[in-house]
């Protein structure tokens, strides 16, 4: 090689110690950023089974993971671990940006390109490197190999916690002050969409269908009101207070319920609730005034949320409530069992009628009773029912929804169209819709 060429090579800006130091520093810090970003996902996405496995293990890596995860502030829930990770990650990214300035200046000397283009190249290149190699790839990896990465990074993060305490402790303290100022009630408000999104993110093949249904029931629990799940007044079994004791015993045996409302005159005048267990001491008595055993009724409005009703059932040690409308008339009846079924699904006993309230003709055609609740329609048709909820008005049953859409009580044979659904009235009279055929039109994506 010509000595002049060797001299020019040695004078190359790419062999400048500053450039080499900056380039190697960026590469090393990108690796550190990737490990730290992956650690955030690895630590906070550990499944209950993996945490139990870690607790049972005796190795030092597992012990460090437990120590790091169990440091969160008890008052605010803010995590010292998370604060440490955020401080280190941002600190590393800032240094990468500073070093990139030197690298870009060496590759594109001043005056060689348009200044605006130089800024764009600088921002785009650094952003691409940090996002792709420092965020996306490590977090995808940590999602699949979280436990292994958490064990590897537990020691470095534990050391970093001690080194960077000056930075993360003020962050935790600021979080506590903000929480105390804006969350004086001591509870956080999370909407249904956030909970649903969290449920989707944590979904896995290990979770059974029953577990999924229970979790979905919990998410939607607070959004339902009493009117949606109550037994309509038309289906409530009740006794007239003027009924004789022999007739009462006969009807009790026919119904098989443990608690039955008692009305005076009409069902709108509920006098109380008869507990069948209170009649046990009088089984051999031929006649007595059974009305003395009636207990005071518990009334709730139609729009009461079922999560609030559950708390009232617990505090009052009650299992049944009479649902009243805005005029004080009886709308229906709701029990503790009805509320719990919204979480765990249908609960049946030896007295429940197993006869289905609908018939499946095929995958796209169903026959429903008009009194079927809309929430049951959603469950059977496997739809979210959001569009129905927006258009249902004050109705909570299929018949009510059809009347709302038609603007009248439709006659037998009439059809009502709603989006991809066609409702055909199979049976009706002048007062109500009794039976409906629901047909689902095929969509292109199906």
Overview of the structural elements:
This protein has 446 residues and is an alpha+beta fold. The chain has four domains: 180 residues, no CATH class; 30 residues; 119 residues, CBS-domain (Roll), CATH 3.10.580; 83 residues, Uridine Diphospho-n-acetylenolpyruvylglucosamine Reductase, domain 3 (2-Layer Sandwich). It is built from 17 helices and twelve strands. The strands form three sheets. It has a five-stranded antiparallel beta sheet, covered by helices on one side. Strand 10 and strand 11 form a beta hairpin. Helix 2 runs parallel beside helix 6 and helix 5 runs antiparallel to helix 6. The chain is elongated. The N and C termini lie far apart (70 Å). The N terminus is likely disordered.
């Amino acid at each position: 090689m010509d000595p002049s060429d060797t001299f020019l090579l040695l004078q190359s800006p790419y062999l400048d110690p500053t450039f080499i130091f900056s380039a190697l520093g960026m590469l090393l810090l990108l690796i550190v950023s990737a490990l730290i970003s992956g650690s955030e996902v690895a630590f906070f996405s550990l499944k209950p089974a993996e945490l139990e496995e870690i607790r049972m293990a005796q190795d030092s890596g597992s012990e460090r993971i437990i120590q790091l995860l169990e440091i969160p502030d008890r008052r605010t829930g803010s995590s010292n671990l998370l604060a440490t990770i955020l401080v280190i990650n941002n600190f590393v990214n800032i240094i990468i940006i500073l070093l990139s300035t030197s690298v870009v200046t060496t590759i594109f000397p001043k005056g060689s390109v348009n200044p605006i283009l130089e800024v764009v190249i600088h921002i785009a290149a650094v952003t691409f490197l940090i996002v792709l190699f420092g965020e996306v790839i490590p977090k995808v990896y940590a999602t699949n190999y979280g436990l292994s990465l958490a064990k590897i990074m537990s020691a470095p993060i534990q050391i970093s916690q001690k080194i960077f305490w000056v930075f993360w402790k003020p962050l935790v303290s600021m979080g506590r002050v903000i929480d105390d100022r804006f969350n004086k009630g001591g509870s956080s408000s999370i909407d249904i969409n956030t909970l649903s999104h969290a449920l989707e993110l944590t979904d896995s093949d290990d979770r059974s269908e029953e577990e999924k249904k229970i979790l979905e029931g919990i998410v939607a629990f607070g959004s339902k009101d009493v009117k949606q799940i109550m037994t309509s007044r038309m289906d409530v079994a009740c006794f007239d207070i003027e009924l004789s004791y022999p007739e009462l015993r006969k009807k009790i045996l026919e119904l098989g319920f443990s608690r039955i409302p008692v009305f005076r005159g009409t069902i709108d005048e509920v006098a109380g609730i008869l507990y069948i267990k209170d009649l046990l001491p009088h089984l051999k008595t031929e006649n007595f005034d059974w009305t003395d055993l009636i207990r005071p009724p518990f009334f709730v409005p139609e729009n009461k949320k079922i999560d609030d009703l559950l708390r009232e059932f617990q505090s009052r040690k009650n299992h049944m409530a009479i649902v009243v409308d805005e005029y004080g008339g009886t709308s229906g009846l709701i029990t503790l069992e009805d509320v719990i079924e919204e979480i765990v699904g249908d609960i049946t006993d030896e007295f429940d009628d197993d006869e289905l309230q609908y018939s499946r003709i095929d995958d796209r055609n169903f026959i429903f009773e008009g009194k079927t609740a809309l929430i049951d329609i959603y469950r059977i048709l496997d739809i979210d029912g959001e569009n129905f909820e927006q258009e249902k008005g004050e109705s909570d049953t299929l018949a009510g929804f059809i009347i709302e859409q038609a603007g009248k009580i439709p006659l037998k044979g009439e059809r009502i169209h709603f989006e991809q659904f066609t409702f055909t009235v199979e049976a009706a009279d002048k007062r109500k819709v009794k039976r409906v055929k629901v047909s689902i039109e095929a969509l292109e994506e199906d």
